[in-house]
Amino acid sequence: MFEVFRRWVSARDPADRSAGRVRRARLTSASSILTQGITFVVGLVSVPLTVSYLGQERYGMWITLSSFLTWLTLADLGLGGNGLINTLADANGRDDRQLGREMVATAFWSLAGIGGVLAVGCALAVPLVPLDALFRPSAHVVMSELQWAVVLAFGSWLLVLPLNTVTAIFHGYQEGYLSNAWAVVGSLASLLALAVVTQLHGGLVELVVALCGTRLVVALAGGIYLFAWHRPWLMPTPRAVTRRALSRLFFLGIRYQVAQIAGVGMFHSQPFIITQALGPTQVGIFTVAYRLITLPLQLIQAFAFPLMPAYGEARARQDWAWIRATLRRSLTASAVGISCMVLAMVIFARPIVRLWVGPGMEPDQSLVLALGLYVFVAGLVTPVSVMLYGLERIGPQALFASVNALATVVLGLWLIRQWGLSGMAAAMAIALGLVNPLGQAVELRAAFRAQRPGPVARVT
Hints:
mainly alpha, 2 domains, 18 helices, disordered N terminus
């Protein structure tokens, strides 16, 4: 039965490439929805559990620390993310196993080297970092607890860094459903670890050990599955590292890096701005509201993101008819879906939060409306962004994202002092709405003007 399933999603017959491409994308999308659902249920349980035993202040510090780790993803120079996904999608479209092997090995060992350099830098820098100014803890928080939490979180992140290639490999070969399966395992394992910490009455350090350690164990298990059984020919042996692979990955990665830096500025600068302007307790309120109200956007992304490697493979085969038709359908579905879901969130978000984590974390209606506007605009621009990334038109995307990030931070610093938390959300919505739609419209026109004619695709 497994062999039948494998053949169904692989679609090795060249005449059936477009149909197989759609099947794999749909399977990944369906599994993403399931993963998001399980993650949401885990969040329903874990967020109030974490807030209740850590308290609002320590929970806000945990969110800020998590955002700091997200900023650290910039250190991978784009080698283990979309750059690797695109190169593997291209290699898959050309049926070139040797190129895929070189790309994987080069990315893995480059990230391992970066991790080693960062470990040395961390050992030298941690004693000099003013954690009290960064996290603004009250007298109830022991500084040694905060220091150990930072060190352990950073150390586990370094160990996971080269294993980020596993997720990219799954997506590059249009097997995102396997990556989603491992994400489900990670979510359930994290919930179990959190329950254990809660029963033992652990603090911030124990929370970091439980959650970050669980992530490391699951990442190792996923790597063993991939390299020892599923695709052993991709085992990242040092002798498979090549200069041509490094050049290609670095060329793509550095452009993705600019977009990634901007993306972190857009999506993960908020905890730092809120902490400095309003204090760490307000971070938790914003984060809870953000996690709930952005659920519709996560659903749109679950449908759209699996198409990125499919666009890359279609581009390698010059299947432009399929690219055009798929973009039209994804845009229409996203517009209809995001409109309905955002309306429901605006109506029901506050009572849901009140039941979920209690009245102390309930957002006001202005924050709900501002986040709803942001999610609506983001849902509309996501399908085009995914297609442009799949076609490796990264430079303009990086420019849009950079302008967006700058506008988000500048407007956030200003509006949060005028309107509080809703000002931060309004800054996100205004920056996204002013920059991305116009820029993407120009780039979309340029992308199709540059196309070469290809065979007519059959979209199923």
